[in-house]
Structure prediction request, 67 residues.
Amino acid sequence: MKTLSDPPAELMFGSAQFKVLRAGAYVPCAVTGERIPLGELRYWSVTRQEAYASPEASLEAERRARG
Prediction:
């Protein structure tokens, strides 16, 4: 069983799903650095290929991208 202490997964984000390129238990949030278990991953950017821990983190990433 994978744990959050294992290395992170590497993913390719699509519009409705993601593809696991390298197995792992989690991905880091691009804004907060929080470890997001793959089973709980709900928010990401296809354009930036980033994962987010929450809708608020996703919104903050959008604000940063717009400058």
